[in-house]
Amino acid sequence: MQIPLITLKEALLLALGEAAAAQVEQSAYDYIVAGAGAAGIVAAEQLSQSGRKVLLLERGGPSLYSTGNTQQVLTWNDTMTTYEARPSWHWDVPKGIAQAAAELYEHLPGTNLASEDGKRYDDAAFDITSRFLLANGWSETDAIKDPEAKELVYAHPAWSIANGLRDTPVRKILDAAKARACFSLQLGAKVLRAVRTGSKVTGVEVERADGTREIIPLAEDGALLVAAGTHSTPRVLFNSGIGPAAQIDIVAGGTTNWIELPVGRSLKNHAVATITLTGAKENVPALPATAFPSPSQENIDLFAHSSGVLMQSSQRLNFWTSLNTTTTRQYAVQGTVRAGANSTISIQLYLTHGTSSLGEVSITPDGKTNMTISPLLRSAEDREAMSAGVNMFLEYARLPDSILTVADNVTAEAILTKIASGAHNLGTAQMRVSNDGKSVVDEDTKVWGTDNLFVVDGSFHPKVPTGNTQAPIMIAAKYAAKRILALRRDW
């Protein structure tokens, strides 16, 4: 059935300047999840356990060969895994988030020994850096067994690897959902907006890979969960008439049918400083540049048996501690260590929990969202904390008997001129307990002013974690889905 869509101004579509036409799918769903990333897959699977009709939408195509990606042959470099540290979480009801974490880790337990032959490969960087830290009062921990240990500790990196492959929700969690008759997955479906009447969402409009548009309806008591990522979730909300008035003016040319919330205005990230130390007194061999893109036959043979250096990431050691600024604000830092070159140790220092700097994501007239303000070290306190972290390692390296050293002319000020992004973006639709003008969702991840619209990805996280974001995002999405299921009778 064809129906005419209303104009941009009326419908808040993507600034096309003319009316469009879309088909309406006849089947309605109890839950629609927009975005099949780590959060979307986990949330959709949790919802599908209820037996309700669940639809997971993803703008891209299949990601793995095993799920149908036969058009792209991946290179060695593209298949390498990354490290992952378990987080600690504290969110509302006692044991609620902890239970969600325990359930997630049953599917994705992680490991700090990825090679199935039980050996650690290319571990010289861990050896020398662990002794360097130990000499300065640090101690070794197991980040998987004791995720709460975050003060002057180091560990072998925790990786999301199992059976010789990257252990992802696509492999472990999506399959569980697909086995249920109530679950559906649609690829090549870009979610444009929530279709809503006042506070109630009645469906979503999607754009197919061929450019056609379709409205997918929700059941009368259904709900839409947005999990499009910290840059694309704001786009969906803006185009749904939700966000700062200036943003809605861009996509709609002005309208009175909008909900004004600070969407996109609390972007957070981990700032990263790189510190290079020299192990002049000891030989610290680095992997050749060809190790991953053009591996040796020996390493290929080991990889075929789920073993060897190709089973690992480039990082060899992680560490965590805390810092205080002159205003007594406490910060957490995380670090990763690898051998950047022969006899050279590269430390990446991440400023994590406690970060106060905020950035912004905005939409442009062509319908794209862009980071218009970077969140990296915008506040004086954040810069002071990062400088203190860098100086801590420079001071260690300048002690008389240090096994790692640094040149006298290296300063924290110079290092901070080359700050990088941790690519751990969060907070563009952040959660707070009240609609105080600083948040977008409540403690059930429901968008303020709506009846049945939720945000379940990293966009709602109000603070950056003390480690990487993938695990916290999945855990929080799982817990959010449980809360949403419990709310069903209320809308």
TrEMBL record:
User: Which UniProt keywords are given for this protein, alphabetically ordered?
Assistant: FAD, Flavoprotein, Signal
Q: Which InterPro entries match?
A: FAD/NAD-bd_sf (IPR036188), GMC_Oxidoreductase_CD (IPR053208), GMC_OxRdtase (IPR012132), GMC_OxRdtase_N (IPR000172), GMC_OxRtase_C (IPR007867)
* MF annotations from Gene Ontology: flavin adenine dinucleotide binding; oxidoreductase activity, acting on CH-OH group of donors
Q: Where does FAD bind?
A: V191, G458
Keyword Signal assigned to the entry: answer is: yes
Q: Which Gene3D superfamilies match?
A: Cholesterol Oxidase, domain 2, FAD/NAD(P)-binding domain
Q: Name one Pfam family in it.
A: NAD_binding_8
Tell me which cofactor or cofactors this protein depends on: FAD
> Would you indicate the residue range of the signal peptide?
1-22
Q: Which residues form the Glucose-methanol-choline oxidoreductase N-terminal domain?
A: 229-243
Q: Family membership, please give it.
A: Belongs to the GMC oxidoreductase family.
This chain belongs to the protein called GMC oxidoreductase
The record lists the organism as Microdochium trichocladiopsis
